[in-house]
Each structure stands twice: as C-alpha cells, then as structure tokens.
C-alpha cells in the first residue's frame, strides 16, 4: 500500500513521499471536517487545505491545488472527491475509504434524522412552517449556485466569438432541458460535452484513440421499472453524471423523485434540497432524503451508497493517473461543453422549483432570499435558516403552511 500512497505527485512535480498517517488519525480528522463542514465545497476545501497543507504539512501546497483541479474534472461532488483523494494520498486505498466514509457519515446521519422529522406523516406546525419557508428560498439558492459557476466557466471559453457563442448555446440548452426534459436532462449535458469535443477535434485535425463519449451508455440506459432498483439507479445517475457541484442534483433528480416515481411531493423535494444545504458535508446527501421518502432508513442508506460509490471508484482507480486526466485535451473539451450546460440546468431548475410553491407568502420569502443571496451576497445557510424562521412565523399567525 505504500506504493499507492506514493504513486504520483500530480502535475509532473517530483514525487514526495508523505508520512504514513494512521487510519485512526484519518478517521478522526476527516470525521471532524464532516461534522463542522457547513457551507458546501468552499468550506470543505478550506478545511482540507488547512489540515493537510498548513497545519500537518502532509501534502505540498502545489500538489493540493493540482488535486483540486483534477477532482473538478470528474463527475460527482468535487469536494467529496478531494476528501477521498487526500486520504488516498496519505494511506492508499484503505485510507481513501476510511477518510471518505468518515467525511460523509456525520452529515448523512443528521440529514436522515431531519428527514424523519420533516417527512413524518403529521409533523408539528413549526416543522411544517420551517419546511415551507426554507423550501421557498431554494429557487433563489439554485440561481445563486449557477451564477457562482459562471466566471470560471466563461474564462475557459477561449477561442474567440465562436467559442463564446457555443458557451451561450450550451447554457441555454441546459436551462431549457431542466425545464422540459425531466430525467433525460443528462442526455443534453452529455451531448453538449460531445459537441465541444467534436468541434475541438475538428479544428485540431484527426486524432486516434478513444473519444470522450464514455457517459453516453450510462445516460441512455433504461432506468429500472420501480422499487429499490429505480432508487439506486436515480441516485447512481446523480453520482456518476453530475458535474459542476452538488446543486446539479436538483434538475437530475426532481422529475424522477416527484413525477416519475412519486416518492415525494414538490414541496417535500424542496425540503430535501434545503436540508442538504443546511447540514454539514456534501450537498449530494440530499439523495438520502429522497431515498428516505422512497423506502425509509434503508432507502436513504441505499441512495447515499449509490450516489457516492462512483466518487470512490473514480478517485481510487484514477488517482495515479490524475496528471494525464488534467492534460488530456479531449477531457478538457468535454467538460468545457458539459460545464456551461450544467450552469444552465441549475439556473433553469429554479423555474419548476418556484412553480412548486403553493402559497402567496412563499413568493415573498423567495424574493427576500434572492435579495439576500444575489444582492447582499450573503450565505446560503443563513438564507435558508432565515426563510425557515419566516415560515414558522407564517404558521403561527395562521397562514397556510401545509
């Protein structure tokens, strides 16, 4: 296992053998980050950098940055993959499993407990009010998430007007697909990536070898007819095909969870997204709430396993080759196409989310949340907690929160 832990400082730099870190230390430190990691990927990355680079000096700063860049090229939750990769770098495959699990489990336990409370058959008034209020703000959170991805993605659209025009086209296509395509949204995301690969390959001349079309069979696979097989498929699709951050879970899951399989109502799905935002750990844990709605605790655990398994597989199998992944122009081109489509899909998901609101006062809360997030540029957690408090107040004064 020592050769795995030393197999390849990323980016072509001289390989540096890190100290052999005990599994107990990895479990404790990655579990701590899983407990306090409120705020999504920026917080997770900052905590991992503080631990591995600044405080313990286990990983060189430049190598850590290369790790971030490589994880951002993989489908799935990037900060979770970074947690798995840093643990792999210190203790090989077993370290990756221990670190990743300890990073995920604290938030998973909390979100399942909250799911049991919020999805109970007859929750108390304050719970229904908090759910209705926080759910009302989710559409604004989606728009903020999309806006936050724009600068870096636009910067990668190099090559003149044609490249920028394709970028805009991919964004529009992703937005339209989020509103109209339902669970087949993944086909649009994959198609945008493949179009960009074809364009860049054509301008660079013919190339030999495999193309970047690996996601197509998974995207067009026929989902299971129902039951636990369908739940596992939907969760796996999120983990294997999502790109651009955990919030892409909304357009990837909403149609399946609400319209296709009827595991939950629109309002309950809004609650699931809100719970994923206010709990520590990766946002993708929202799938556990969907799983709980479909099949109780067992369904929540199954959905979480199916959603995170691709991240473990991709990092453990691919970490020694991350340098080649980052330098492969076909991979870069694919995500330069799929990335803008994801931005459009996340922004477009705000439309069905807003249309799912049932009460007039919720639209007022949505407007306030939009001002808080987009104009004042304040945090998501505070926006959702504030919206939840307004929902409780609405219930207490007699407004409908059901």
Concise description?
The chain has helices at residues 2-5, 23-36, 41-55, 61-72, 78-118, 125-136, 138-155, 161-180, 185-204, 215-220, 227-241, 249-260, 266-278, 286-318, 322-327, 329-348, 350-355, 360-375, 380-396.
Description:
- This protein has 402 residues and is mostly helical.
- The protein is built from 19 helices and no strands.
- Helix 6 packs across helix 18, helix 6 crosses helix 19 and helix 13 packs across helix 14.
- The longest helix has 41 residues.
Uncertain runs with pLDDT below 50, 5 residues or more? 1-16, 205-214
What would the average pLDDT be, to the nearest integer?
86
Rg, rounded, reads 21 Å
Distance between the termini: 55 Å
DSSP, total strands: 0
Silhouette: globular
Which series of helices and strands comes N to C?
HHHHHHHHHHHHHHHHHHH
Helix content: over 70%
Main pleated-sheet profile: none
Please outline the helices and strands.
Blueprint (H helix, E strand, L loop, with lengths): L1 H4 L17 H14 L4 H15 L5 H12 L5 H41 L6 H12 L1 H18 L5 H20 L4 H20 L10 H6 L6 H15 L7 H12 L5 H13 L7 H33 L3 H6 L1 H20 L1 H6 L4 H16 L4 H17 L6
């Amino acid at each position: 296992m020592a050769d795995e832990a030393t197999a390849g400082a990323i980016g072509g730099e001289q390989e540096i053998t890190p100290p052999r870190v005990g599994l107990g230390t990895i479990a404790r430190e990655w579990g701590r980050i899983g407990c306090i990691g409120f705020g999504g990927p920026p917080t997770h990355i900052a905590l991992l950098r503080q631990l591995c680079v600044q405080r313990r000096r286990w990983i060189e700063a430049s190598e850590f940055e290369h790790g971030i860049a490589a994880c951002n090229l993989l489908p799935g939750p990037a900060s979770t993959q970074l947690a798995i990769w840093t643990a792999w770098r210190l203790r090989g495959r077993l370290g990756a499993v221990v670190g990743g699990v300890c990073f995920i489990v604290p938030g998973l336990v909390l979100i399942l407990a909250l799911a049991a409370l919020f999805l109970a058959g007859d929750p108390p008034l304050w719970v229904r009010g908090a759910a209705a209020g926080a759910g009302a703000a989710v559409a604004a959170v989606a728009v903020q998430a999309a806006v936050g991805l724009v600068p870096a993605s636009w910067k990668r659209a190099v090559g003149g007007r044609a490249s920028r025009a394709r970028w805009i086209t991919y964004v529009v296509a992703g937005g339209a697909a989020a509103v109209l395509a339902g669970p087949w949204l993944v086909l649009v995301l994959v198609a945008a990536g493949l179009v960009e690969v074809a364009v860049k390959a054509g301008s660079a001349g013919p190339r030999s070898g495999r193309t970047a079309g690996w996601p197509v069979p998974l995207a067009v696979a026929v989902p299971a007819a129902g039951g636990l097989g369908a739940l596992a498929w939907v969760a796996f699709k999120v983990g294997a095909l999502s790109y651009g951050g955990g919030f892409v879970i909304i357009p990837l899951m909403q149609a399946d969870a609400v319209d296709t399989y009827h595991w939950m109502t629109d309002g309950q799905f809004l609650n699931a997204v809100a719970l994923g935002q206010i709990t520590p750990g990766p946002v993708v844990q929202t799938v556990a709430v969907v799983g709980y709605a479909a099949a109780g605790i067992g369904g929540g655990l199954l959905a979480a396993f199916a959603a995170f398994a691709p991240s473990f597989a991709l990092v453990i199998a691919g970490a020694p080759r991350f340098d080649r992944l980052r330098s492969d122009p076909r991979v870069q081109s694919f995500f330069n196409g799929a990335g803008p489509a994801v931005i459009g899909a996340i922004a477009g998901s705000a439309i069905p989310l807003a249309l799912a609101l049932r009460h007039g006062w919720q639209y007022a809360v949505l407007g306030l949340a939009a001002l808080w997030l987009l104009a004042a540029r304040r945090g998501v957690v505070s926006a959702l907690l504030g919206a939840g408090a307004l929902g409780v107040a609405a219930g207490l004064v007699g407004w409908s929160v059901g």
